[in-house]
TrEMBL record:
The keyword Protease does not apply. This is Zinc-dependent alcohol dehydrogenase family protein. Its cofactor is Zn(2+). Keywords: Metal-binding, Oxidoreductase, Zinc.
């Protein structure tokens, strides 16, 4: 057998579940991993929407997986054939200036976000993982593949780019705009810091209901409510301490800038395909900090420990399960989340 099936990108709006060659070890530090469980990210939807220009025709999509190592290059030291591993959305050379500082997402040694972006990804039977020693994590005992799969991207993304960049602190009022898997992960991560209130904002009521389950105590739908007014009422007219943008459109970034109090923090998480307006004429005087970021995944070991000791419940993200042959259906279910109530869809080999 020298071919497998994979989700292949064919330009904006076009994808197919088709035959492609099996990946092989190309560099000494590569591993090939048989994909056991894989999922779909909001970023994959952005790619299919044409928002991520670096993804070209013929690319296998996907940057999240848990699988079994089937082959390792001669330079791989810690990962062995047969190991169950988390394939992280971020690949790290481990040696460049950014990797040495824990900023693996910014790796300039050939890593960073490359899977399903610059090289073929995980929505396939097998995936080649460069720098396998520093880009995979052993699956701990006592947890399921599905739970660990939630740490390939959404877990560290919501935690690092939302909660930690936003410096969520005890007693804070935290507004999370966008209650998709990434926003929900930010809510879950914020709760670890005992905020006074977590306000979830989303256009989809199904997602707002999920936000309540993940620990939001106030949910607002901007189609019905003046969210800025409600948050100001809640905070003596000041605004939220932290506003986390987890959608990736101009309107929600601009809304976060309106939601935040003087001295507060706006943490942008969403992948943007177009410009947003920075109202510096309002913001310059308000001491607002705005952070941006691609996830680094430096928190993955911490989150694995929190999972293994049941401090976070990642199983509740999984709403739908499919077999690999039903991958297109899985995409459809995830893309129509407002109707299907999908959070994370898991595809299993
Ligand atoms: P998703 O598409 O499942 O969720 C987005 C949510 O935003 C949906 O619930 C939708 O109803 C809601 N929404 C859309 N327009 C809105 C509006 N105007 N106001 C309020 N809510 C609105 O996506 P996800 O998987 O949760 O990812 C969220 C974002 O995070 C995406 O932009 C994704 O690309 C990005 N992301 C960033 C990184 C990173 O490293 N920075 C990593 C992973 C994902
Ligand atoms: Zn690097």
């Amino acid at each position: 057998m020298s071919t497998m099936r994979a989700i292949v990108y064919h330009g904006p709006g076009r994808k197919a579940w088709e035959e492609v060659p099996l990946p092989t070890v190309q560099a000494d530090t590569d591993a090939v991993v048989k994909v056991d469980t894989v999922t779909i990210c909001g970023t994959d939807l952005h790619i299919l929407g044409g928002d991520v220009a670096a993804v070209t025709d013929g690319r296998v999509l996907g940057h999240e997986a848990v699988g079994t190592v089937t082959e390792v290059g001669p330079g791989v030291k810690n990962v062995r054939v047969g190991d169950r591993v988390l394939v992280s959305c971020i690949t790290a050379c481990g040696a460049c200036r950014y990797c040495r500082a824990g900023s693996y997402g910014q790796c300039i040694g050939g890593g960073g976000w490359i899977l399903g972006h610059r090289i073929d990804g995980t929505q396939a039977g097998f995936v080649r993982v460069p720098f396998a020693d520093t880009s995979t994590y052993a699956v701990p005992d006592g947890v399921t593949d599905e739970e660990v799969l939630m740490l390939a991207d959404i877990g560290p993304t919501g935690f690092e780019v939302g909660v930690l960049n936003g410096r969520v602190s005890p007693g804070d009022v935290v507004a999370v705009v966008g209650a998709g898997p990434v926003g929900l992960s930010a809510i879950m991560g914020a709760k670890l810091f005992s905020p006074a209130h977590v306000v979830a904002i989303d256009l989809a009521d199904a997602r707002l209901e999920a936000a309540k389950q993940f620990g939001a105590d106030i949910t607002l739908n901007p189609a019905r409510e003046d969210v800025v007014a409600v948050v100001r009422d809640l905070t003596q007219g000041l605004g939220a301490d932290v506003a986390i943008e987890a959608v990736g459109v101009a309107a929600t970034f601009e809304q976060c800038a309106q939601l935040v109090r003087p001295g507060g923090r706006v943490a942008n998480v969403g992948v943007h395909g177009g410009p947003a307006t920075l109202h510096l004429e309002d913001l310059w005087i308000r001491n607002v900090t705005i952070t941006t970021g691609l996830v680094d995944t430096y928190s993955t070991p911490t989150l694995l420990r929190l999972l293994a000791t049941h401090q976070v419940d990642l199983a509740r993200f999984v709403t739908h399960r499919f077999a690999m042959g039903e991958f297109i259906e899985a995409y459809d279910t995830f893309a129509r989340a407002a109707d299907t109530r999908a959070l994370k869809v898991v595809v299993t080999a």
